[in-house]
Target: Ribokinase
Amino acid sequence: MIWNLGSINADNFYYLRHLPKPGETIAAEDFNQGLGGKGANMSVAAARAGTRVMHIGAVGLDGKWAVERLLEYGVETQHIHMINVPTGHANICVAEDGENNIVLFGGANHEVDDRIIGAALSEASPGDFLLMQNETMGQEFAARTAKTLGLRVAYAAAPFEVDVVADVMGDVDLLVLNEGEAADLVQALGQPLDQLPIDDIIVTLGENGCKWVSNKGKSEQSFAAYPVKPVDTTGAGDTFTGYFVAALDRKLAMTDAITLAMQAAALMVTRQGTADVIPDLKEIQDHDFDTGPNA
Model:
């Protein structure tokens, strides 16, 4: 089972010809609103990947719809609290080439405290996963508590802050970060990835695939990306992480878990949206990844 300490957002999508330059005003070609937040995205991805996932988080009084949507997608919601603070949201600009930029408002996500986290994790079992991102509070407490209870800790280090990574690093078993975040972490800590006290590190490389640095196994392995034409890259990394941790929770081997996660992310970038359009396991199993969707 996965216990996901994560954000829940309303995602506001603005579809543009190109991303705005500093000082530029540009008209949106289209608009859409849906469920998002790195935490919610990963919870939905993990549930659609075939494992049990309990979300730990908070929404405002305006966020009942988001909890209902998560429940509809198979996520357990008993530890999502409703509080008198606006639900977090993200304003997402998506250009025609699929690139995006995002402005976040944390809202209720920043009201998740140690009491909420502790109450949830007290129900966890040894061998479960704790999954975290950096859009809520309490990661250090959560990681330390989870390790004490015998959980495996997976941390997706985004939005990236080196101090937060340094604070939790001693309790993290699995770190997922992108190429830029990995470079920033190495520079800030003055240590290469293969010398960090973390068993396994996954570095996502966008269209170049990803690499797995196994400090436990003292090895490094690269994985090529699947050829697709991107429509919207928003949520692809979250989809990868949710599928990846879910596959490990289902006892898949690391290489098989990475392959499945990359297939899920490849399908995700061909769609517009976030949590609402994350592919399910059957879609991935039925897809011909040898030729790619645009062959």
About this structure: Residues 291-295 have pLDDT under 50 and may be disordered.
